[in-house]
Amino acid sequence: MSAAAAASIVHATTVDDAINDAVSPAANFISGIIFYSVKIGEPGTLAYVEIPLIVVWLIVAAAFFTVYLGFQNIRGFKHALDLVRGKYSDPNDAGEVSHFQALATAVSGTVGLGNIAGVAVAVSLGGPGATFWMILAGFLGMSTKMAECTLGVKYRKERPDGSVSGGPMYYLRDGLAEIGHRKLGKFLAVFFSICCIGGAIGGGNMFQANQATTQIVNVTGGADGVLGEWRFVIGIVFAIAVGAVIIGGIKSIARVTEKVVPLMAILYVIACLTVIFGNITAVPDAIGQIFVGAFNPEGIAGGVIGVLIQGFRRAAFSNEAGVGSASIAHSAVKTTEPATEGFVSLLEPFIDTIVICTMTSLAIVITGTWADPSIEAGVATTSAAFGTVAPWFPILLAVAVILFAFSTMISWSYYGMKATGYLFNDSARAELVFKIVFLVFTVIGASLSLGPVIDFSDSMIFAMSLANITGLYFLARVIKREITQYRAKVKSGEFAMVKH
């Protein structure tokens, strides 16, 4: 290690420690509340299991809306594809982006490192059976997305210049006011917006920059490599790239995500399929492990409940169904029917969890890297699975991580900017200040490892779901009425396909 590298690491460690020491008490307190777990059984025994209440909160809502809305995640799937393909799109409708662009922007905000590292951790802790429960949770989450994105368009604000603002903060304020809960709605909207800003800067920005930078450093020789002591320079490059996109607002973000998201998804799925077909003889056994492990796991703490929680936790944390973030992106769509975007948003958990997370899981189950005690659970598990194809193959994983991180940052910058706009009455100056702060923290996130700060930010992201899902329950009848009326219009031909 060079003297400069050593000095840099010592300096970074010192700064890390100082900031971490300052924020740890408050961060740990808040994180402890949001991620509070009910503990069952004796610690250290196979009967012991921890059940995070925030996961229960998200999954119960997903199950409720799946049943309450009449399984639209199955019945509406084909219609969602038709909408994304533009068969019902009228370019003269109010809004700023197409159905496909809105979906791409929202998917880019959810598909991130969790799809790679988080899945590996879930399978390592819960065994292959966690994959089954993860897919089920992703299926249920499609309904929560539909509920929140339908409301996002219904209560959005359209301005004379054609720009729009929408999301949970607007339907919490205006929707709850309509049914006689004005004060509660205002409180939940402000609470949601504050949490959204904190989540955007931390989990949606700093964490992504930090992990992507780490991947770049690792594939270029590690801490002693050519970029080992230049993390802040990588951060500046990220900030410039992100800044170049977000300066143009949602239209610029959508133009980039509609190209980046399909590219990164196809690249990652092809890479996973290469791993799977490279170990094709192990496929039947892996599928057997997934089903047997889901209902009769061996050696997994908490038994079936333990493996179920691992799968549900990963799905809920990955697709963010119920958090409300995606509703902000979907609100910008060009449409006159709020329910159209509800149907389109069904596809988001399907892509994020049922396709991409499942691909990761299959790759590490088939290669058996999840059970190798010499490999640290996380990105290293997936990287080892990729390494079974060829020594250079993990480089593709690093490219995927960088693309996932970049796309997540630009989407969360929009979420944070819109939340700032809500709190400051759509002040252009306030939104500009947020963008600048966001980019500064991109560089800080790439340079430092602020664990407690990131934990605090993560807790703010999931705190958003407390306000959002409360509002969804209050407005459940409104959601169902919108979807029922819309389906009737489609059936009668009042809302028909558009000739292009």
Short key terms for the protein model shown above:
single chain; mainly alpha; two-stranded antiparallel ribbon; two-stranded antiparallel sheet; disordered N terminus
Compact overview of the structure:
By secondary structure, the protein is mainly α. Helix content is 73%, strand content 2%.
Instruction: Give the terminus-to-terminus CA distance.
Output: 62 Å
Q: What letter string, H or E per element, gives the SSE order?
A: HEEHHHHHHEEHHHHHHHHHHHHHH
What's the overall average pLDDT, rounded? 87
Helical percentage: over 70%
Helix count from the secondary structure assignment: 21
Classification by helices and strands: mainly alpha
Describe this structure in words.
With 500 residues, the chain is mainly α. Helices cover 73% and strands 2% of the residues. It has 21 helices and 4 strands. The strands form 2 sheets. The protein has a two-stranded antiparallel ribbon. It has a two-stranded antiparallel sheet with strand order 3-4. A hairpin with an 8-residue loop joins β1 (37-40) and β2. Residues 1-11 have low confidence and may be disordered.
Task: Outline the fold blueprint.
Layout: H1 3-34, E1 37-40, E2 49-52, H2 53-68, H3 72-75, H4 77-84, H5 99-110, H6 117-126, H7 130-154, E3 157-158, E4 164-165, H8 168-178, H9 182-219, H10 231-246, H11 249-278, H12 283-295, H13 303-319, H14 325-330, H15 338-345, H16 347-367, H17 379-387, H18 394-423, H19 428-447, H20 451-474, H21 476-492
Helix pairs in contact: 1-20, 2-7, 2-20, 4-15, 5-11, 5-16, 5-18, 6-13, 6-17, 7-8, 7-12, 7-13, 7-15, 7-16, 7-21, 8-9, 8-20, 9-10, 9-18, 9-19, 9-20, 10-18, 10-19, 11-16, 11-18, 15-21, 16-17, 18-19
